[in-house]
Amino acid sequence: MDFLQLDTSAAEPLYRQIYLRLRDAIAQGLLQPGDRIPAARALALELGLARGTVESAYGLLAAEGYVEARGQAGTVVTPALARHAPVAPAPRALPAHDNLGDAASSTRPFQMGIPALDAFPRKVWARLAARAVRAMQPQDMIYPPWAGLPELRIAIAAYLQLSRGIDCTPSQVFITNGYRNSMELFTRALLQPGDGVWVEDPGYPPTSDLLREAGMRVVPVSVDGEGLMVSHGIATAPNARAAIVTPGHQSPLCVSLSLPRRLALLDWAARAGAWIVEDDYDGEYRYVSRPLPALQSLDREGRVLYSGTFSKVLFPAIRLAYLVVPSAQVPRFEEISRTFAAGGPALMQHIVADFMNEGHFARHIQRMRRLYAERREIAAEGLSAVLGKHVQIDPQPGGMHLILRMKGYHTDRAVAARMREHGMSALALSERGVLPHGASALLLAFTNVDTPERARELGRRILKLMA
């Protein structure tokens, strides 16, 4: 039963996850009235859970009338349900740009923005967390510093200098509670309502949404095989006040911004007095060479702000990110941070700082880079073996998702919608931009596809939806 995959890291208790999945399966008709469901002992053995956990879920289903115990005949879906419409609502359809910010009780296959949670060093994390709790003093229980804990800002500055070529001081690092908070800090500090801002097209839809909510004028700029087409941006809006870019692995095409384009972008910003926000959301994950230096490392005029996040390299629920600002802008960001910053609980910041300072962070990234290279190959080969007649998988230098170009009459929007209806996550490339591109492709994360068998099984599920 594919719908019974559980998320052991979710806040939702396991018994309730089982209850919800069986209830929804009955409502959707995946389990018909009279169908027998697995015995509690057998299902507990299959899922690796205590029998009492499964029995608690079954008890709740029975109490609400979804199932009936038949003694030696086992437990079945209540036959009387055949005379009534489904009483449980079908799962809410995921929005077209489902991504890291779309909260769900469990991870769906191919869900974007979710790292390989099964490979996270939870024992190390638990030990550091326990130590941080034991060491808490009264002064640790007051409001945390508005720009973030000094020890975490120091750790981030040191890491960025070694890994991304960014020469910054801890005072330039501002801790936020996610990318959205980083963007809010940036717009409040340096922009005014009505300012034009370049965004990549196709791109990351929440960026445009955030800018519009802040009163900015969004300017879509085309992307090709070398990344953002700076010449298009200059021709369209030469006096724009900012550009939001993903130069390491463009979101969603995964291309890297070429050196000539990087220099052209920096030159435009210097001449126009504009700002560049470098969203380096997964820059660590490059598989054909070492990770590229950050765009900020080329900045000599103090026009680039570097945005990083722990969601992709640790786990999304951590809700911690950071923004590195030009040194001349530190006073302005300190002023704005006193009012608007929300860097997250001090305890979580302490744990992350210890995780970085003791070397666990760097080792984790190295392990994940090797693991993702393997899983990318597994997913690409498995899906190609099943879907090769219908899609072409683009080779990519890095990132955390695959691009499946549609062949023939299939369209990405229709297939993505069917996948979401059938318990999988999928994004349609054609929905991630407003300019005419004509590209039809599926965006599927591979980070949690762990075996060739799993990749082929998911491929077969997609193939049925293409029939």
Q: What report would you give on this structure?
A:
With 467 residues, this protein is of the alpha/beta class. Helix content is 39%, strand content 13%. It is built from 14 helices and 15 strands. It has helices at 14-28, 40-47, 51-63, 122-134, 150-163, 179-190, 205-213, 230-236, 259-272, 330-340, 346-357, 360-387, 412-421, 452-466; strands at residues 36-37, 67-69, 75-77, 173-176, 196-201, 217-224, 227-228, 242-245, 275-279, 304-309, 321-324, 391-393, 401-406, 427-428, 441-445. The strands form three sheets. It has an eight-stranded mixed beta sheet, sandwiched between helices. The radius of gyration is 24 Å and the shape is globular. The relative contact order is 0.13.
Main sheet characteristics? 8 strands, mixed
How many helices does DSSP assign? Answer: 14
The percent range for helix content is 25-40%
Taking all Cα atoms into account, the compactness measure Rg is 24 Å
Q: Which strand order spans the largest sheet, edge to edge or round the barrel?
A: 4-11-10-9-8-5-6-7
Strand content: 5-15%
Derived from helix and strand composition plus strand pairing, the structural class reads: alpha/beta
Shape: globular
The averaged pLDDT comes out at 88
